Amino acid sequence: MTRVLVPSGALGLNYDQTALERGLAAKPDIIVIDGGSTDSGPAYLGQGVSKYARASIKTEWAGLMEARAKAGVPLVIGTAGTCGTDSAVDWMTEITKEIAAEQGRPLRLAVLKSSQNPKALATRFAAGKVDPLPNAPDLDADTIESCTNIVALAGAEQIRAALETGADIVIAGRTTDTAIIAALPLMQGCDAGGAWHGAKIGECGALCATNPQSGVVLLDFDDAGFIVTPLADGSKASPHTVSAHMLYENSDPFILYEPGGHLDTRQARYEAIDETSVRVTGSQWVPSERYTVKLEGARIAGFQVIVMCLLRDPRYVENAQIWADDIKSKCDAKVRDRLGLRDDDFTIELRLIGHSASFGPLETERSDPIEIGVLGIVTAQTEDLTGEIGKMLNPYLLHHPLTQEEEQPTFAFLFSPPELKRGAVFEFVLNHTLALDDPMSAFRLEVQDIG
Amino acid sequence: MVKLNEIAEKVRTKNAGPFWLTIDIFCGSETSFDIVRTHLSPKDIAACFDTHTNQVKVFEMPDLHVVKYSLPRPAIQGTPEDRDMHGASWAVLVGLIEIRT
Q1: Is the Cβ pair B50, A362 closer than 8 Å?
Q2: Could you tell me which residues come within 8 angstroms of residue A122 by beta carbon, excluding any fewer than 6 positions away?
Q3: Cβ–Cβ gap A250/B83 under 8 Å
Q4: How confident is the model over A54-66, as a mean pLDDT?
Q5: How many domains does chain A divide into?
Q6: Which H or E run includes A259?
């Protein structure tokens, strides 16, 4: 049997200290936490930075390093620093070394890196090693080479290699959310279907139970399946909450693709063991013929400036769409004329907040708001151009009248200047897999002994 | 004609990675599950998002009284056209779909 303690769905979201103590008292074989996701958008991968505050990461990680020392077992973080690039792994390693010095404990650190060299990947693409997943954008070598960061998602094999170094702490770059949990149970011979299914159920912490924000769960893996037990007060798992978690952020609720195969939960059985724990058996692991890892890549899509104003005059609120459409057509023409740009060199979009900003043309309801926020979004290929276009948009958002006859209106700006530079904006360009002859060939593993 | 959110207990939408949106309709009872399963179609979901029916995948989980749909995101996550980074607000639009019972 392998006992895995998961403190929360992500480092940075905090965990229940009392529940963590309970988990330590249960003598886990490993403590595992996820550090990232693509869910906050492409900027983190594009820039190679964390979405959480350094002080939050340091506080929570120091608590887990204490817990690891108490339990005397390995501590693993996957997708360090939100995006799992080498830069994010280095950031996490630096924080870990600071804490190790403050706690005064020697450590063996295994660092697994997942970043891919765009030029080298373009060569692998040309060799037919890169394949699209459903709804992948079109890809060519230039697109790959234009990425600011590309990562490959490590699976259980690479985490296993890191654990086999005898590391006290594993800091991994991009991994699948599940691989960090499944790795040790797989190493110790637990049922593979159960290992991957349990990993999927536990990867968001207590989201598979009631009181979902409490975080801490314990997973017991064996030769037929797994048991999940949330550890915070008031957090209970039931066959309903556990099986429903397979829906969460999954396009297919029964099949989950991982490096080296896929999980099939169609035959899984969920049984309540008591009021808080659920046992799951019958999940299948289906190995694939080729070993593939998923790729994520982001590149600069352009630069943005946003400008905001408020409409409160009832006549303008009522006619906001007509007003915004008129501004857009006039400002587009001015940009073409004065900057010599073509239509596909820039975009100006006016989103009417309080009117249709959530769904745009797909909105099916209308109401009568008392005010509307107008968010002007300017996108172009350079920072200078977005600055110029933002300043051309400014006078329209301040003074544009519905009719030529009326007195010049003035709308509310919130700031001076009202244009806010967003800088570079990023886009995800890869939804592909990379075939590997050797699972470690796209990853680098380093061992560091500290103190 | 009733709206989906008058029948279902909860409608949830989330990203399933940067390229897919997934819709979980928690019907709350067998009766509601049967109505949703038989009267809401991939065509309705496609119309709601102005996409093609063949882009919409449907899954039924009778034990949970859940009908799930997955489709390409209305815009790839984080592109200038994207209106909701985490894809959760679309649930409201789906809940407003009218169902002929």
Answers
A1: yes
A2: A141, A144, A145
A3: no
A4: 98
A5: 2
A6: none
